[in-house]
Design brief:
- The chain contains eight helices and no strands.
- The chain has helices at residues 2-17, 22-34, 50-66, 72-93, 96-99, 103-132, 137-157, 159-185.
- The longest helix has 30 residues, at 103-132.
């Protein structure tokens, strides 16, 4: 049962990295450093290092600032196309020993989880910019940050709830996307 919980935690943390790479890394490092809820094996225990935590905090502040500026947020998403999946891979691989899977497979799963969420975010954000003239970008970015924080905490404290929420979110995004596509393909009457 512990390996199932660890798998769900890894999946939840990696997925939230698709929204914001630094929030789940920082949360994981802080929780591992100050509680017994997460134990990170070497080399992932580097996330607990004070200098790593400070660096992640600075990167988080920079990312949270630039992600709220229209046009700059698109550039930020392009840069983070590599960073977010890498963060997901680190978070998933950090749990590989608890899950009982090969680290290489864990890295792939983390890349896919974070990359999938990031791809969805990157696809939706231009629609927000276009429909709101960029005024909605800071609001959507703040919502993404809050969801990443709540998701990271849920992944650690209540991983089953986190995965259920991810599935519901995926269904809602898919329904929205298909509905949008159907409206575009509908001939004018």
């Amino acid at each position: 049962m512990a390996s199932v919980t660890a798998f769900l935690t890894a999946f939840g943390l990696a997925s939230t990295a698709g929204l914001n790479a630094y929030i789940p890394l920082l949360v994981t490092g802080l929780v591992a450093r100050y509680t017994d809820l997460i134990t990170l094996p070497t080399p992932f225990d580097a996330l607990e290092n004070v200098w790593v935590l400070l660096t992640l905090s600075v990167l988080l502040l920079i990312e949270m600032t630039v992600d709220k500026i229209p046009a700059v947020d698109t550039l930020n998403d392009m840069i983070h196309t590599l960073v977010r999946p890498a963060a997901g891979a680190i978070l998933f691989a950090g749990q590989a020993g608890h899950i009982g899977i090969e680290p290489t497979f864990a890295i792939i799963l983390g890349l896919l989880a974070a990359g999938g969420v990031h791809a969805t975010k990157a696809a939706v954000r231009p629609a927000v910019t276009a429909t709101t003239g960029g005024l909605g970008n800071p609001v959507v970015s703040l919502i993404e940050d809050v969801l990443a924080l709540i998701g990271a905490l849920l992944a650690i404290l209540l991983p089953v709830v986190m995965v259920v929420l991810l599935v519901v979110a995926a269904i809602l995004v898919l329904r929205w996307w298909l509905g949008r596509r159907a409206r575009r393909e509908r001939p004018f009457a």
